[in-house]
Amino acid sequence: MDRHQIEDVVVSAIRIINQGRTPEHQLAESADAALYGAGSPLDSLGLVALLIEVEEGLREEGLAISLSDERAVSQKHSPFRSVPALVDYIAGRLGNPA
Amino acid sequence: MNPPRHILITGASRGLGRALAEHYVERGDAVVGCSRGPATLEHPQYSHVAADVTDEAAVQRLCDQVRERCGGLDVLLNNAGVGRMLPVALTPLATARRLVDVNFLGTFLLTHAAVRLLRHSPAGRIVNFTSIAVPLRLEGEAIYAAAKSAVETFTRVVAKELGPLGITCNAVGPSPIRTDLLRNVPEEKLQALIDRQAIRTWAEPQDVINIVDFFLKPESRHVTGQVLYLGGLG
């Protein structure tokens, strides 16, 4: 799976969780969106919902990975701080570093 | 009558877990049971997976099979547990570790994996199993009670974390029931325990099933983070 395909899975997951979020808490559905941390309306509980959707999207592509990481909610080092960081992280987990 | 649900029960081959499995298949639910050994229940609505709840890879395989067979889950009953009556001064580290691994980390591992399966359920439910050893601060069961205390705190925090996903998480603390878990506890100790209860009789599996049924009802959607003991303790 290449970087662009991973990006599609992540943005699709954002689109899905936005359906359950109020208008003022919508996430940007773009390839450079901030996810967790400053500048994002996503809190740690919202992050869980998003990552589960991303896992599901990857599973539908035949890739079963768990996005559990002890740095998950670190403000500086979270691999989930933005769409590009998350895509890099997934690519690395798949043995396909960006 | 509510529609059938997909239910995963750990420790399903004996005691309370087996009674829960029987109850829910008779109700028409599809039950997947797991235990380290083979199935002890045969029923068209029941399937069994051999898995140790302390083994992360085995738990993942179990959840993969649940996904294949059921597509998702509505209910997780974290029933698997082990008990040992031993004073702290006589408890080997390996025994303590096993008590924490099965009773607490097993509950964590199943919850961690099953959240992915529960998220699309219209009424996702997790029920954990604690013990009256916690409110009684039962001498001789320090490690077991500490592990179950961890389960209680875990239950309350998970309730907050999974509330936004529409999943409730509660715990039930049975008073003594005649199951394998208590087979090595002397009868007089058990009777002394029962004498400390408000209801001074042995509980039956049905008493626990009644509480679990309550937690599972769609109408219980606002009941979460609760720990309910039988026998009038707590």
Q: Give the CATH superfamily of chain B.
A: NAD(P)-binding Rossmann-like Domain
Rg of chain B from C-alpha positions? 17 Å
Tally of structural domains of chain B: 1
CATH class division of chain B: Alpha Beta
Broad shape of chain A: globular
Radius of gyration of chain A, whole Å:
12 Å
| Overall pLDDT of chain A | 88
- Tell me, what's the shape of chain B? globular
Q: What is the N-to-C order of secondary-structure elements of chain B (H for helix, E for strand)?
A: EHEEHEHEHEHHE
Low-confidence stretches of chain A: none
* β-strand number of chain B: 7
> Helical amount among residues of chain B, as a percent range?
40-55%
What does the largest sheet of chain A look like?
Answer: none
| Uncertain parts of chain B | none
* N- and C-termini, Cα separation of chain B: 33 Å
Termini Cα gap of chain A: 12 Å
Pattern of helices and strands of chain A: HHH
Q: Based on the coordinates given, report the CATH architecture of chain B.
A: 3-Layer(aba) Sandwich
- Give the helix tally of chain A: 3
Structural class, from helix and strand content of chain B?
Answer: alpha/beta
